[in-house]
Amino acid sequence: MSSSPGQSLSTASTQGPVSARVETPFQRFAAAFLEDRVAVAGLALLAFIILLSLIAPWITPQNPYDLTRVDLLDSRMPPGSQTMEGFTAWLGTDGVGRDLYSGILYGLRISLVVGVVSGLIAATLGMSIGLISAYVGGKLDTFIMRLVDLQLSLPSILVALILVAALGKGVDKIIIALIVVQWAYYARTVRGTALVERNKEYVDAARALGLSKSRIIFRHILPNCLAPVIVVLTVQTAHAISLEATLSFLGVGLPQTEPSLGVLIANGFQYMLSDRYWISFFPGVALLLTIVAINLVGDRIRDVLNPRLEK
């Protein structure tokens, strides 16, 4: 039996309009990020590098930190050679007999840990200082910003070299040096955003309700300052990795017993113009791919969080 137009109209009116699907901010961010194929390729490469570094003990034939398993007779062997231990060194060995494939994956673990840990601690410290500086203002703000200007006026490598020379070698010493080098970037970034946020109505409403300064700063202003901090954190992570490799290459970073990518590159630098190119070449490629992947992801995050910068 066919229904009359009146019945159809009444049925449609009772059903009401179809509600549109509401996307969360993360879904909108992910959709915008995935529109750039180059950034997606960088993210895939970065995820692959992180995965390899995490499972390094299970997919490498040698622990490069265990000197009892390193044989000097295996030193400077070309890629694809058979070592004294019976495994194939697909990427060759370095000057002390370490398997480069194993050394690179373990070196990636150190580079990623140093970059991420130093970045997170520096971000926490810098955000706290920048928020307090912007909210309090006055002489405190002037003093902190002059300190930030002094910090940023000095070359990062010079400051890191002085600190590592004073503190000594080791992963913890490098992390401390990188925190001192990086905190000023986060402080300046957060201060600039917080200066805008503190004059908005929701901050005035929080003051009118009698909320404490710490709650206003860290519960209300801070969440609205996170977008630029995420971008700076991504860029500074790549910078920290390259800085750690530079310090290790110069011989003031990690000791020879803890091969990072910088140490591996330094071990083969004297052979670059000879036929033993692989000692520095493969660790250098691994370092380059890691930094490029992080920068590709960071550039896309910057464009998504600030559409005005979209190319």
In summary, what is this structure?
This protein has helices at 5-15, 25-33, 37-54, 56-59, 100-136, 138-153, 156-167, 171-197, 201-208, 213-221, 226-249, 261-267, 278-305; strands at 81-82, 88-89. With 311 residues, the chain is mainly alpha-helical. Helix 6 (138-153) packs across helix 8 (171-197), helix 11 packs parallel to helix 12 and helix 12 runs antiparallel to helix 13 (278-305).
How would you describe what is shown here?
The structure is a single chain. The chain has 311 residues and is an all-alpha fold. It has one domain: MetI-like fold. Helix content is 68%, strand content 1%. It has a two-stranded antiparallel sheet with strand order 1-2. The longest helix is centred in the middle third of the chain and has 37 residues, at 100-136. Residues 5-19 have low confidence and may be disordered.
Count structural domains. 1
Q: Could you give a short account of the major beta sheet?
A: 2 strands, antiparallel
**Tally of extended strands?**
2
Q: What is the top-level CATH class?
A: Mainly Alpha
Q: Which characteristics define this entry?
A:
MetI-like fold, mainly alpha, 1% strand, 311 residues, two-stranded antiparallel ribbon, 2 strands, 13 helices
Secondary-structure map with pairings?
Layout: H1 5-15, H2 25-33, H3 37-54, H4 56-59, E1 81-82, E2 88-89, H5 100-136, H6 138-153, H7 156-167, H8 171-197, H9 201-208, H10 213-221, H11 226-249, H12 261-267, H13 278-305
Antiparallel strand pairs: 1-2
